Structure formats: C-alpha cells, structure tokens
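Trying the structure run again after the queue cleared.
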Amino acid sequence: MEDKCPNCGNFLITRSIKKQLGSGSIDYPVSQMCPKCNWSKDLTGAGDVAAKQDIIEESEIKKEETRVIKPSPPKPQPAKPVKAKTPGKSTPTTGINRILTIALAALVLMAIIWTFAPLGKETEKATEPVPTPEVTPVPDVTQQTPVPEITPTGNRIFVRLDRDRIFKGAVSNIKPGDEVIWVNDGSYSFTILGNDIPDFGARTLDNGKQTTYIFKKPGTYSFYLEKNKNVNGTIIVGN
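Done. Tokens:
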C-alpha cells in the first residue's frame, strides 16, 4: 500500500538505495517526496538526529547565558613610593609666599617709621588773618528804573499776502503801541517767521485768517515766509 502526503493527500514517491546483502541485494528506502506540494520526509533518521543535536546546542547556549559570572576581586596595586623632597629646593608656591611675606614686612616697617618720625618744627607765630574788605553793594539800576509799559495806540496797520505770494502794504515809521495785522488773501496756508521780532515765533495762517502783533520798542524788524525767504517784508518802528 502506497503512502499519501499528509498535506495534499497525493501519493508519495519513495526513493531507495540498494545494499549488498550476502550474495544478493536489498532495496533500502531513504526518503519520501510528494510530487505535487514538494513535501518530503527523511527515512534514514539522520534528520531527527540533527534536530536533536540543534535542540541540545540551543539548551547549552541558554545555560551559558543564564550562568552568572562572578567578577574577580580587583588586584591590590602596590603603593607608589613617596619621593623625599631634596633639601634646598623649594616649589614655586613656596617662593611666591616668601616674596609676599617679605614685602608685607617691609610695608609694616615703613608704616612704623613714618608714624614715629619727628615732625617739622611748628611755626612760632601764627599767621594773622587778612581782613576782608567790605564790598559796597551796587544798586541795580534796572530794578530801580523799570521800563514803562507801552500803551496800545489803537492804530491798526494791515499787511496782506495776495495769491501771487506778495506782501502788500509796506509798513514804515509806525509808532510803539501800533498794532500790525497780517492777513492771508491767498488760496493756501502759509507760516510767517520773525526771528528778530520778540516773542513772535512761527505763525501759520490759513486762507482768510489773520494774526496781530503790537510793537513796543523802536527798531527795524523783518519777517518772511517759512519755505520762501524771498517773500518778506520790513517794519520800521520810530520813536
């Protein structure tokens, strides 16, 4: 009866070898193989022996891994001999300490000598104090003679800046207390500067606006536009 494959149920092919036995021979099966799924089986027993050998080797490896290797105690090292210092030779640190000690002693000695050294002879006569001359206060003329305030005269002089950027209305020989009025007749705003006019500063005028100033002291005063110094004018204040 032929054996069947345990995987697919197909009939197995048995391979055998002939061995001499006396005057005749005998067929000795060595393996079986399935031609359909290539399943095979070794009939000589050599495969079982190899498998058993692999199991034995694997168990031996696991035993070697689980075995605890006790570390050997460290070997005592011989103590190094201490070299005796040669007399007469000093380390750099010792030399520095000696220098610092000598310098400190010299400073202390100099301080003692300076403390107990005899001072110079004191002057027998004390210097007489120099009398301080009396200063007569000078009266402040500005405080005694206050500048009289200027009373506004009520006169009003107009200076107009037209659309062509020209100041119209030359101002000359006005009196202290007269009021000058700048008027913007142009289409754009402008800023008037008067560097030599006291407390005038910079004055910006929009279209149709005006600004005033009362001149209190005689003199010649100039004014001009901020972005164009060529557009300017002069005011003369007489006595």
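The longest strand covers residues 24-33. Worth checking whether this holds up in the mutant runs.
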